[in-house]
Input
Amino acid sequence: MTESSRPTGLNHLVINVRNMEETHRFWTEMLGFQKVGAGEFGFGEMQFYSADHGGGRLSHHDIAF
Output
């Protein structure tokens, strides 16, 4: 069996949630992500979050809800 390679990061993950306010508090207050955007799309509201990529640099988003 060959050894699989390890991931170096996570990017563009979308998670469907039931409570956006609770999700926002958890990802910002507990995990330290920063909200970088929001939008209303045909299927509902989405919010976008970025981790600190070093020196306060943010991406357009790493995760969306």
